[in-house]
């Protein structure tokens, strides 16, 4: 399933999942089971960070089961291809349709999947206020060696300035950047 998501454009995936959301539900069932064995779960790292910043307006790109929204006091816009509940906006993350500059922080927790990842980051850039922040967690194995340079170039090309170095903890990398 990861390969299918990673090699398709988000518009294609969105249409497919809107027509038949069973693949989305299966993916998240398997994801829920897999993370039980993880020593660190990226969305939980972001939850702890946000709890200390309840005033921030958040965009959760690829929110899945909307666990971030359920765990923080922040105003959160939750985006995914399928709306698991009424608080999730079912949308292609490359084109949310929301107004410019409404977010303080954009979160991508294991959600940079698709042939047009740069479009997601451009949409996040558009939605962020000046000096808004993007926080990304991704599987380290997916972005090893030269591929990590590709990810950092995509982030910079979208208009972001990296904050510090890429952090690698366990099976994940974490990237923080500011809208410049």
**Helix and strand succession?**
HHHHEHEEEHEHEEE
- Tell me the count of domains: 1
Main sheet makeup: 8 strands, mixed
Number of helices in the DSSP assignment? 7
Strand portion, in percent? 25-35%
Provide the helix percentage: 25-40%
Remind me, CATH topology?
Rossmann fold
State the gist of this model:
The chain is α/β, with parallel strands linked by helices and about 180 residues long. It has helices at about 1-5, 10-20, 20-35, 40-50, 65-70, 115-125, 145-155; strands spanning about 55-60, 75-80, 90, 105-110, 130-140, 160, 165-170, 170-180. Helices cover about 40% and strands about 25% of the residues.
Structural notes for this entry:
The protein contains seven helices and eight strands; from the N terminus they run ααααβαβββαβαβββ. With 180 residues, the chain is of the alpha/beta class. The protein is globular. The termini are far apart. The model has no long low-confidence stretch (mean pLDDT 95).
Task: Give the helix/strand layout.
Elements (H helix, E strand, L loop, with lengths): L1 H6 L2 H10 L2 H14 L6 H10 L5 E5 L5 H5 L3 E6 L7 E3 L12 E7 L7 H11 E12 L6 H12 L2 E3 L4 E3 L2 E8 L1
What structural keywords apply?
single chain; 180 residues; alpha/beta; Rossmann fold; eight-stranded mixed beta sheet
């Amino acid at each position: 399933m990861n390969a299918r998501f990673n090699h398709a454009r988000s518009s294609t995936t969105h249409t497919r999942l809107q027509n038949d959301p069973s693949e989305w539900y299966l993916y998240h069932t398997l994801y829920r089971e897999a993370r039980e064995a993880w020593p660190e779960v990226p969305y939980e790292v972001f939850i702890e960070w946000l709890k200390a910043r309840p005033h921030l307006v958040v965009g959760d790109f690829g929110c899945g089961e909307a666990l971030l929204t359920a765990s923080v006091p922040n105003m959160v816009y939750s985006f995914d291809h399928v709306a698991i509940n009424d608080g999730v906006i079912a949308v292609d993350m490359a084109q949310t349709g929301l107004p410019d500059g409404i977010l303080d922080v954009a979160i991508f927790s294991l959600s940079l999947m698709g042939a047009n990842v740069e479009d997601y980051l451009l949409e996040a850039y558009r939605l962020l206020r000046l000096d808004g922040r993007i926080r990304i967690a991704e599987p380290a194995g997916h972005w090893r060696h030269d591929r990590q340079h590709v990810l950092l170039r995509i982030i910079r090309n979208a208009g972001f300035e990296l904050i510090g170095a890429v952090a690698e903890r366990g099976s994940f990398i974490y990237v923080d950047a500011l809208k410049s």
